[in-house]
Write a structure and sequence with these properties.
The complex is a heterodimer of chains A (467) and B (420).
Chain A lengths: L1 H30 L7 H41 L7 H16 L8 H41 L4 H41 L2 H6 L18 H10 L3 H32 L2 H16 L2 H22 L9 H25 L3 H9 L4 H30 L2 H6 L17 H9 L8 H35 L1
Helix pairs in contact in A: 1-2, 1-4, 2-3, 2-4, 2-5, 3-4, 5-16, 8-11, 8-13, 9-11, 10-11, 11-13, 12-13, 13-16, 15-16
Chain B lengths: L2 H41 L4 E10 L13 H6 L3 H10 L6 H8 L6 H11 L7 E7 L2 H7 L16 H12 L3 E5 L1 H5 L12 H32 L4 H15 L2 H15 L7 H26 L2 H9 L4 H29 L3 H5 L20 H9 L5 H31 L5
Antiparallel strand pairs in B: 1-2, 1-3
Helix pairs in contact in B: 1-17, 9-12, 9-14, 9-16, 10-12, 11-12, 12-14, 13-14, 14-17, 16-17
Classes of the chains: A mainly alpha (467), B mainly alpha (420).
């Protein structure tokens, strides 16, 4: 239905383009007036006026229609005698009614449901009809308005440009809307979660096992139940596991990335650089699920085998395997950023150092790196934020059970792994378990945001210093 | 320490330092090689499947149709008895257990394959024909040499009797390897020999197209605004910081966003390429805006001023001159952004694309899988046959990514103007 409407709106407004163009042309010729813009701009003007208001209206309508119909239907069902105690049951009844209307419901039908389904059909009908009528009304009104403007020989090009500029501005706002959407959707569920679990119990609890968290009635939790819940949602093992794996990753990525960055910037000839830089960057382009597969099926068992040879028990989901592979994934982030940063250190600093007789490596160690340090630290922080937000490698190669350990051969879990584990498969909405995933998401979001902010500030400050 | 000794020490430190740098590059390159080699050696066998040449007798007594039956009649006919008879007759079994073991050497789709052969030629009743039937996963892996046969029998999935049958097939040249058409045309399956990435490829294509259609125009318009029209004020600064931060938000957070807004609030259908495309578009948007702005910035001011000087409006100078010149950079940035989106897995898992989907999606609102998610799903499966399938899927995914990246590089090198 909506597609047909959109299609009609587009066809109609495109035909208006030709109408507007020829109309103004003939107007100009017959009345002998000088037009204020080229005829085609009058066409564009009509097209924009005809399509934008109608499409915006259609979008808003489509977003709000289901919500309004739902509240109406639940109310009518309640009036007809359907009983529901809370929101969930109301939703269930609504879904049933909808399924009956769509003909996909195969359960028992009682008279209340039947009546409600009829009412649903009626409302859908009313809403669809009024939508079509309103859209036609809007189109007619805006076309009449714009035609009148054209007849008065308006400055069509300026008007078109103003409208288009508005369109450009709106597109750039979408980034802000996305941020708002992220914050809103994370906060919304997190607040529900923290209304059940005290935020300090969450932040400082040392036990994480959400699968144990069963809540019969979230509105009235006894102290004993709360004790149990508190023990299920302790954040400490997750941040410890995430930090630990990220630390192992950085142990790999920082030396390798930094040294290859230095080599590329200071030593490599153009030829070496031209083939080694793209190949290292391939590492950043490989999907993380590929690394995860490699870590889980090749590296994990390999380490286990080595461990067995030395008489060590290595978990096949060891933090070491996940961290190592994650580190390799991060190498290009460190290397290309530090390469950039080192390249922007002014040559005069190096020349000064050579002039007093330092070798190249001494210059790099004593002059270039200290000068580039803020930028290098910025790039490392960016890499850390990449590491803690990385999901697939740890989901596939790290453990699932929270485990407070600093032994790299044991398995640990991370924030992202837990989010995936909680939200994969069937979720019960409104359970603390599902909500905890959003709380984890919020924590992750804030952590990466802070890291990025500091890193970007550091890099920017550093750039300004030498520009 | 004498002067010479000190100098020598300093020079060897220099050499060491240089060596460390070279080593790190070497380590990174080595890892790329190991990864690619590992995936290719595991995955390349998945493009072939093992088939067993079986003599099928279309016995009139076992079938309820005549020669020359219509397509519909054939489709509605049960070929189960014909299949069972043919499979059992392929080797002389002693008892019922052995017969069952023989049947388990073939894929569950053997009946369909026989039916398909009859559809090709509906005059086969009363005749005996040789048909290549797909072998079961265990035989497939055994034949490809991925499965050790010297284990004791109770630790093997294949019994001694089945091994004998297999050897008999091999000796009589009944087993061969064919091109694995199922891998490219079928959807997911619980049986590795019948599982394919057809559904996942279609799902990925739909998602990426939706992502392109949504993200590209918005990204181009937004970067034109920010680069060309936006006044320098608090609002534009805020938008800029915002975009930079969004580009660094972990992808899983976009999954949570999609779960809460697209699925829970506006009730779009779960597990569909539509939702995947919208999610990926939101995620890719900032990652496209950044290169778009860079390529707009690279167009020298003289172009704008030239246009303005001959009387163009600001809009005309931007849209007629600056944007076309920036297009190569914009397009290659978009393609690289889409390539990242194609490999993205975590947000798709959260919106339910991990559902087990057998059917090939026919529209973006059908439940579907996608290539990276299929890799994740199969890597979690226990069957040995899925290991090669997973690696092969990774090969396909990497092929797509490499093609996209080459296209991006080509576009940039071919059409981009250098301003000096």
């Amino acid at each position: 239905m909506n597609l047909v409407l959109i299609f009609l709106i587009i066809i109609f407004s495109l035909s208006l383009f030709f109408y507007g163009r020829t109309k103004t042309k003939s107007l100009a010729i017959s009345k002998g007036i000088k037009l204020n813009a080229l005829p085609k701009f009058y066409g564009y003007y009509l097209v924009l006026w005809c399509s934008i208001p109608a499409l915006v209206f259609l979008l808003i309508w489509t977003l709000f229609e289901p919500v309004i119909i739902k509240s109406i239907i639940i109310e009518t069902a309640a009036n007809q005698g359907a009983v529901f105690n809370d929101k969930n049951e109301a939703n269930l009844v609504y879904e049933k009614i909808k399924a009956i209307y769509l003909g996909t419901y195969f359960g028992d039908l009682d008279s209340v449901l039947k009546e409600s389904a009829l009412a649903y059909a009626k409302f859908i009908n009313i809403f669809t009809n009024s939508k079509v009528v309103l859209i036609f009304g809007i189109i007619i009104a805006s076309v009449i308005y714009s035609l009148k403007k054209i007849k008065n020989n308006n400055k069509a090009r300026d008007d078109v440009e103003i409208i288009l500029k508005g369109l450009l501005f709106v597109s750039s706002l979408i980034a802000i809307l996305t941020t708002l959407g992220i914050i809103f959707s994370l906060l919304f569920e997190s607040i529900k979660f923290f209304s059940v679990i005290n935020i300090f119990d969450y932040l400082f609890g040392t036990n994480w096992s959400p699968q144990r968290a069963f809540v019969r009635d979230a509105s009235s939790i006894t102290p004993e139940e709360y004790q149990e819940l508190k023990d299920a949602f302790g954040f400490v093992p997750l941040i410890a596991g995430t930090g630990f794996i990220a630390f192992i990753a950085m142990l790999v990525a920082v030396p390798v990335g930094l040294f290859s960055g230095i080599y590329m910037a200071e030593y490599a000839s153009m030829r070496v650089r031209s083939f080694s830089k793209p190949i290292i960057e391939i590492l950043a382009g490989i999907p993380t699920v590929v690394y995860g597969f490699f870590a889980a099926l090749t590296v994990g068992p390999f380490f286990r085998q080595i461990g067995e040879n030395f008489g060590l028990t290595v978990s096949s989901e060891s933090a070491l395997a996940a961290g190592l592979i994650m580190g390799i994934m991060i190498i290009p982030y460190v290397s290309s950023l530090s390469d950039d940063v080192i390249n922007s250190v002014p040559q005069s600093l190096r020349d000064g150092s050579y002039a007093v007789g330092a070798t190249k490596s001494e210059t790099i160690k004593k002059v270039v790196i200290p000068a580039a340090l803020p930028g290098i630290i910025g790039s490392i922080l960016l890499a850390v934020s990449r590491a803690i937000g990385e999901t697939m490698i740890v989901v596939m190669a790290a453990g699932l059970a929270a485990n407070l350990t600093i032994n790299p051969l044991e398995s640990t879990t991370t924030i992202t792994t837990q989010i995936v584990m909680i939200l994969v498969g069937d979720q019960e909405f409104d359970s603390p378990k599902t909500q905890s995933a959003f709380a984890l998401g919020l924590t992750l979001f804030i952590a990466t945001l802070v890291l990025n902010f500091i890193a970007q500030r550091a890099v920017k400050k550093y750039r300004e210093k030498y520009d | 320490m004498t002067k010479e000794e000190r100098l020598k020490k300093r020079h060897s430190a220099e050499k060491r330092f240089r060596f460390y740098g070279l080593m790190s590059i070497f380590i990174a390159l080595l890892f790329v090689l190991i990864l690619v080699q590992n995936i290719f050696s595991k995955g390349s066998s998945a493009f072939k499947k093992t088939v067993i040449k079986t003599e099928v007798f279309f016995d009139q007594e076992l079938l309820e149709i005549q020669n020359g039956a219509s397509e519909e009649e054939i489709l509605n006919t049960d070929f189960y008895d014909v299949m069972i008879e043919s499979l059992i007759n392929s080797f002389s079994a002693q008892n019922l257990d052995e017969e069952n073991e023989i049947i388990r050497l073939f894929s569950p789709d053997a009946e369909l394959e026989i039916k398909h052969a009859f559809l090709q030629d509906n005059t086969l009743i009363g005749k005996k024909v040789n048909i290549d039937l797909t072998a079961s996963d265990d035989i497939d892996q055994l034949h490809k040499g991925n499965y050790p046969r010297d284990l004791p029998e109770d630790r093997r999935r294949i019994s001694n009797f089945q091994l004998n049958v297999y050897d008999y097939f091999v000796d009589n040249k009944k087993i061969s390897k064919n091109f694995n058409n199922y891998y490219f045309t079928k959807g997911d399956s619980r049986d590795p020999e019948l599982a394919g990435i057809g559904g996942a490829i279609i799902g990925s294509i739909y998602s990426i197209l939706i992502c392109l259609v949504l993200a590209f125009p918005v990204a181009v318009l937004a970067s034109i605004y920010l680069e060309e029209f936006a006044p320098k004020n608090k609002i534009t600064d805020f938008i800029e910081i915002n975009i930079n931060n969004l580009a660094a938000v972990p992808s899983i957070v976009y999954g949570l966003l999609a779960l809460q807004i697209l699925l829970a609030t506006i009730h779009l259908p779960r597990s569909t390429p539509l939702v995947a495309g919208i999610t990926l578009a939101l995620m890719t948007l900032p990652r496209i805006i950044i290169p778009c702005r860079a390529s707009l910035k690279a167009v020298p001011p003289s172009i704008r001023e030239g246009a303005l000087a001959v009387g163009a409006s600001k809009f005309q100078s931007v849209f007629h001159h600056v944007v076309p010149l920036a297009m190569p950079g914009t397009l290659s940035g978009t393609i690289i952004g889409l390539a990242q989106a194609l490999g993205e897995t975590a947000p798709l898992i959260l919106i339910g694309m991990v559902a087990f989907v057998v059917d090939i999606p026919s529209s973006p609102i059908d439940p579907s899988s996608s290539l990276p998610v299929q890799v994740y799903l199969w890597s979690e499966s226990a069957e040995r046959g899925f290991v090669e399938k997973t690696s092969a899927t990774i090969m396909m995914l990497l092929t797509f990514l490499i093609m996209m990246n080459f296209l991006a590089v080509y576009l940039r090198q071919k059409f981009e103007k250098r301003w000096n």
